[in-house]
User: Fold this.
Amino acid sequence: MKERYDNLDKNIIDMYVNTFNNTKEYNEIERLILIGTKILSCNKKRLSVDVDIDRLFDELRYFQYYEIRNDINILNFFLPIILSTRSIQSSNRIFMNLVEKITHFYKKTNKTMDYILELFCYDMAIRYRLGNNNDVYELFEMIREGLINFDIDFQDKKNKVNFHIKKIKYIEEVHKYIDDEDYSVNTGVLRIIRDAFLEKGGDYTDIGDISVYNTLCNNDKLSHTNQNETHVADKKSPTFYKEANRDLYTNEKYAFLKSMSEFVLKIRQYNIDIKKYQRQEKIVDFSKYKVGDEILDPILNRVKIIDSYTEDDVRIVVIDSKTGKYTFRYKIRK
Assistant:
């Protein structure tokens, strides 16, 4: 029996699925979105959404072996949290516990305050879009009012001052655009919000920026970027957007993303029981297995070793799983 979804549910599913590029493989930011989805949990009694920090810890331990941390916009790591919560207050409560951890992991601690403010603006834009609203000027008015009232009770005085200085800059940027629609917005997510709502396309090269743009595109005209199989698109090649074509997805990938979006919905509706993850003392070392071996892994579930070889002083192991192929790299100790 098929699930029956209302318009908001359908918009959440579409926004989640269409955030991903229309190629077979997942890129770095998409891997982060999947991690952000898998750490979600909910409490039926308290009607609340939360994240499993122990699960996040082990997910990121694996991530270091199969991805290279590039200097990209990591804002969409938080997309599943926004889509699974019913209010900005609920998502902000979770963000405060996560932003410092993920910026530390990506060595972006100098941008922690910026990510807090960007998340606030991005959260408002997503909820506005999910309501089938398209007026970017009305949205910027809402963001301005929201930022004015947005405050965080920092214990450290230096952090508090830094936060308010940055917040004033964001408010000024929003105010300039409201007063002059030709004003060139230059502040991170605010520029992407403007471009996505006005369907300007843009010349983004950072796959994190492109991902945010794709998330915010109108679901009826949702666009994807023609991306190379690289972490950051070639700056010499123009970035362009085209109508989403689900035929370009593999059936397996589309089905998996659809199931992940439905999982987000179940979290939002407090309609799923999730066992607390037990942090592993040691993560699985796939380099110890042979091609053809199948392993039941606590993070990646059932996986199969499909290739294993040595290149210079690195042991490379390719595994296949429900979430696609992963290439793990283990430095050989001499």
Remarks:
- The chain is about 45% helix and 15% strand.
- Strands lie at 40-43, 48-51, 223-225, 241-243, 294-297, 301-311, 314-321, 324-331.
